[in-house]
Amino acid sequence: MIRYALQCDHGHGFEAWFGASADYDDQAERGLVECPVCGSHAVSKQIMAPAVAGTRKSAAAPDPAKMQSMMMQVAREVRSHVEQNFDYVGDAFAREARDIHEGRSEKREIYGEATPAEVKKLKDDGVPCAPLPPLPPDPTRLN
Predict the structure, then answer these.
(1) Pairing state of beta strands 110-111 and 2-8?
(2) How far apart are CA 44 and CA 87, in angstroms?
(3) pLDDT digits (tens, 9 = 90+) for 82-129
(4) Quick one: which H or E segment has residue 16?
């Protein structure tokens, strides 16, 4: 089977399947190919990309050491951004996050310390919070 992209002289595009490429030519010559929209028999083949199976090459597996290095760099950048742009509230994080969420404190970005129980309670109450990624080891100080 072969699929052709076809178009009539009125600009209507459509697809049709044929048993072989010669079948299209034979049917078109005999006036059997017609536009399903307007019924025109003035139909021509259009350019179309072939559907070829099995030609894709699989991507090479990423280098684990390189991936780890990239992830550690991203973690450092995220942490640095938070430390430079958010207010540090220490162990008052849970109380301050709740106050901001409920409108009792000015809206601002904060970070600080919280116990697992405090974090669970914040999440249960719909207060948005997320853990700050731990600071990865300094690559210049690794042995």
Answers:
(1) unpaired
(2) 67
(3) 999 999 999 999 999 999 999 999 999 999 999 999 999 999 999 999
(4) strand 13-18
